[in-house]
């Protein structure tokens, strides 16, 4: 008889607490009141451009507010989230307990390969739920070849926030993520996968921790690209898009990195403001607009969990100060190139920075690969694993 996807391996050394997400009624009522009273700004010339050259339109925000207030069903999304095994676990770090949330699909196979999937901003673990659904359709707990772990990074949604008495960086978050994987019984080895902030976490895990045996990424930031390399047509189009993002789309990141307290107070005081700030990213960083329900689900989770501004600490290292030099990744590296990614990883660039053993270029997909193209990303990760760590 199957034990189900929610039974951790016997090698786990931490006490896992099953978690069910239930936002209190009073919090939902307060949210609805705030949203109802949130005033839309006046119509402007900039706010009428449907090509969104100046950001979201007033019409989109007005329609989204109406839908969020009158048609969006948070409890239905909660039910879907809770249909997957969710847990919380205490991870001790620097004398402090961090309560880390993660969703998981545990396998009953003794030789199952542990794989951790790491999200970024303004994403969260919800991005990977479509992929978990595909895995549940494809495998049973008895024959699932992997242990799938999808953590909420520290400060994001359902995990503890950074400490209040000291600075906290992506390297700190990475250390806690490695401790999480060891606590779950995967100290003998695991694979890390990531995009956005998650790509920096995965690279740190590969560089600093022996337990991380390989990484697969769908974003690869290169501080000093190699000179004189020839890019193909897809990569050239992507470079044009990336340059446009750098010229016209990074103001939010400068604010996160240099004035996090100010923007944090602004956006944590009003749900409509938070929707405008985050909704723009879901619309602009994808090749096809996600459904409004998808956007509102993530923004709602950010709101109910007070994830903003707890989640923007990584930007200080990228935009608020000197970024550490790129370090060559010696361990096996796989990369999936999605053309609408905002930070491109041409093959020659990735090869210059890591032991690239697997690479695949796609014609569709953007920054939120797991959400946009879950089947594509899943196949890529499985093919990469099969390449470096064949499974039966």
TrEMBL record:
GO terms for biological process: epoxide metabolic process. The active site is at 196 (nucleophile), 315 (proton donor), 367 (proton acceptor). Pfam families: EHN (PF06441). The keyword DNA damage does not apply. Keywords: Hydrolase. InterPro entries: AB_hydrolase_fold (IPR029058), Epox_hydrolase-like (IPR000639), Epoxide_hydro_N (IPR010497), Epoxide_hydrolase (IPR016292). The keyword Cell division does not apply. One of its GO terms (molecular function) is epoxide hydrolase activity. Residues 17-128 form the Epoxide hydrolase N-terminal domain. It comes from the Eukaryota. Belongs to the peptidase S33 family. PANTHER family: EPOXIDE HYDROLASE 1-RELATED, HYDROLASE, PUTATIVE (AFU_ORTHOLOGUE AFUA_3G08960)-RELATED. This is Alpha/beta-hydrolase. It comes from Glonium stellatum.
């Amino acid at each position: 008889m199957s034990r189900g996807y929610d039974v951790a391996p016997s090698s786990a050394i931490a006490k896992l607490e099953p978690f069910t997400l239930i936002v209190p009624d009073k919090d939902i009522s307060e949210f609805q009141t705030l949203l109802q009273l949130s005033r839309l700004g006046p119509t402007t010339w900039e706010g009428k451009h449907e090509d969104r050259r100046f950001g979201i339109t007033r019409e989109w925000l007005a329609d989204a507010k109406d839908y969020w207030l009158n048609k969006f069903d948070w409890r239905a999304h909660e039910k879907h989230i809770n249909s997957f095994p969710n847990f919380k676990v205490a991870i001790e770090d620097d004398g402090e307990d961090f309560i880390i949330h993660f969703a998981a699909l545990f396998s009953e196979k003794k030789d199952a390969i542990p794989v951790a999937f790491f999200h970024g901003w303004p994403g969260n673990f919800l991005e990977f739920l479509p992929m978990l659904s595909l895995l549940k359709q494809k495998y049973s707990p008895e024959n699932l070849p992997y242990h799938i772990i999808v953590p909420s990074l520290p400060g994001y949604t359902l995990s503890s926030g950074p400490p209040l008495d000291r600075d906290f960086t992506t390297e700190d978050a990475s250390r806690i993520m490695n401790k999480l994987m060891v606590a779950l019984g995967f100290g003998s080895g695991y694979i890390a996968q990531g995009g956005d902030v998650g790509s920096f976490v995965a690279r740190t895990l590969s560089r600093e921790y022996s337990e991380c045996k390989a990484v697969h990424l769908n974003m690869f930031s290169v501080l000093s690209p190699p000179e004189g390399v020839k890019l193909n047509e897809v990569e050239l189009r992507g470079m044009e898009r990336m340059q446009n993002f750098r010229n016209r789309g990074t103001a939010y990141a400068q604010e996160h990195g240099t004035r996090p307290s100010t923007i944090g107070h602004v956006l944590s005081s009003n749900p409509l403001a938070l929707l405008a700030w985050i909704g723009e990213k879901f619309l602009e960083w994808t090749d096809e607009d996600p459904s409004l329900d998808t956007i509102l689900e993530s923004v709602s989770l950010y709101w109910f969990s007070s994830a903003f501004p707890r989640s923007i600490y990584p930007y200080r290292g990228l935009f608020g100060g000197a970024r550490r030099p790129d370090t060559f990744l010696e361990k096996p590296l796989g990369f999936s190139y999605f053309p609408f990614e905002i930070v491109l990883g041409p093959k020659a660039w990735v090869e210059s920075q890591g032991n690239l053993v697997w690479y695949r270029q796609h014609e569709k997909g953007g920054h939120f690969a797991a959400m946009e193209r879950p089947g594509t990303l899943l196949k890529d990760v499985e093919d990469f694993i099969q390449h470096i760590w064949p499974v039966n």
